[in-house]
Every structure is written in C-alpha cells, then in structure tokens.
Amino acid sequence: MPQKILILEDNYVHMQALTEIIRSLHSDLQVYCASDVKTAYQLALENHIHLFLVDIILDIHKPGDVSGLDFAKAIRGVTKYKFTPLVFITSLEDPKLYSYSQLHCYGYIEKPFSVAQVRDTVLSALEYPVKEDDDKYVYFRKEGIVYSAHVKDIVFIESSRRKIRVHCINDELEIPYKTCEEMLKDLDSDSFIQCSRYSIINKRYIEQIDYTNRYIKLKYVDEQVEIGRIMQKEVKKRLGYE
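Given the sequence above, the corresponding structure tokens read:
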C-alpha cells in the first residue's frame, strides 16, 4: 500500500515546496494538502495517513496563534493516530518541550527549511514502526456523518446495488459505493483479499475454501463468498497455495 502524507500548511509556496520534495523521494508516496485545521481533520478521517507535517502557526495575523498544536492535540485523540509520526514545521522554540512530552512529536522542520532537512526528516519518520491491524480503525462518511469500524472486526465487504455492505463480527454497516480498490486502500491492511469483482474478505476469518466450486466460508457470515474466476489464482497466491 502507498504511504500517505498529510501537509497542514497555510503558506502556499511552502506547501508546494514540501510537496515537490516529498514526491521526489518515492513515486508511491501520496501527498494530501490542507491550509486549515477543518480540512486537514476531514482528510485524516477519510484516509489512513502515515505521516503528518504540521505548521504550528496557521494564521500569522492572529496574535499567539498555535492552530497547528490544536490540530495535533485533536488528531492524537483519534485512536488510529495515537502514535502516527507527526513532524512540526516551525520557527518557534517555545512549543518544543510541550510538543515532545504531550503530543509525542517525532521531530521538527525548522523554517526556513532546506531540501536536505525535509528529505532526512520525512524518510526517517516513514521508517517508524507501523501499528498492527488490531489497533487500526477505518472511517466511512455517509450523509455527512463519519462512522468508524475496527479493522480487525471486519469479516467481509461486498458491493450490492451501488452500495457497500461492511460485515463485522457483531454489526453490519451500509455505506455509499466505493470500488474494491478504493476500499482496500482505506483498509490499508494485508489481512484483506479481493476474491471477486464485488467482494473483499478478511483472511483471518476463513473457515473453509473450496477451489473446485469457487467459494469461501467465513466465520460470522452465513452466506458463502464466491471466488471470481479471474481472481482465483491471485487468491491462492495470497493464501500461500501457489
């Protein structure tokens, strides 16, 4: 899965410079940009971010502004981002002690920043150990409301009549349509396998596989999940049969 980086920076020139540096590091890196806290928070909920770059001062016209610190506090309150690497962009010295102790700040990019400084900091932060799937949540937005599901509790996902049904151990959630490719990106986990054009399974809950009749039986789900003809080889490969 590509690693995703969110930049929260109100200065367009700085935002573009950071984006260009990051994209030059690796072609698979995805960069999301926001100039305000509300947009950044929404992007964080709708995606699985692997690294945050946050400018501490987002409104230079507001005396004493530390909006970036407020965003960091809010994002640390989201379970899946409790320990995600967070790098501050700043020319300030005073917030450092607070940021390290209270917000688990990974590091700083000092303004004016250099290409080498940004490259070294970002590459180092991206090597930070990724949380296990058991600690992850995935977020879905429906009719203006954001719903969450514990990744480890998702058993099976299927598309039906332009809707997505997410089968969990003790619940079922219906959300607006997404492709399987989009869902896999949101889940960001090796536990999930696409087994047909319309379905994704969590391999942890497989009870039985019948390759002859092309179906999979899962725990907590009554129905059998079909293995598509063109997906059969890939399913076998992912499950270690090839």
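The first helix runs from residue 12 to 25. Try to locate this feature in the token string yourself.
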